[in-house]
Design a protein that fits this description.
alpha/beta, Rossmann fold, three-stranded antiparallel β-sheet
Length: 234
Amino acid sequence: MRQKSDRRQAKIEEGQNGCNIVLFGPPGVGKGAQAELLSHRYGLCHLSTGEVIRDEIASGTPLGLKVQDAVRKGQFADDETVLGIVMSRIDEPEYKKGFVLDGFPRNVHQAERLEELLAERGRKVSRALLIKAPEDTILARLTGRMICSQCGRTYHQLFQRPSIRGICDSCKGKVSQRHDDDPATHQERLRVYQEKTAPLEEYYEKASLLVRINGDQTLEAVAADIGKAINGTK
């Protein structure tokens, strides 16, 4: 009965706009896993910025080459380039029903520009879901992260292992622990998150789009809370 109700609500929210979700939170809080579950449950496109950028680079598109040039220089791609890549995907037909943005926007300026570009297309963000957890929980989770060397899909030693040890479920590439998983790197990522991305909480709260999700729970419990948020019962 609950499953039918969820699907009906998702269909109601689609319309011309689609059900468009921004999912954000500190590194290691479980955004990727929840984005995948959310996209499967509601039939939404999961747009992981990291994966999209890697695809653009591999395809040799003009935007991908621009990002690659920045990476080679040890720099971050500028906001407009990343926005161009994200919007090129959102403009694809399969994104009309809705999408889950994972890893974007990363700052308030990106959020403002995303809002403007969606408005030009007669669309908008439906909800902004902030997954939060204590720092010690996040640090413990970060040390167990794994990644596919071929397609970039993420896994976790405790919460989301590949079906076959060391082999990616999606592309059969090699899955191993991230090379940059060390305490100093994690602390720096958390610092950057607090400086750059955490202000999105206030931005989306002012827009009446924010829903806070307790990430210090099991994968299933977090997914259940996200389901309530999507259905307007949280």
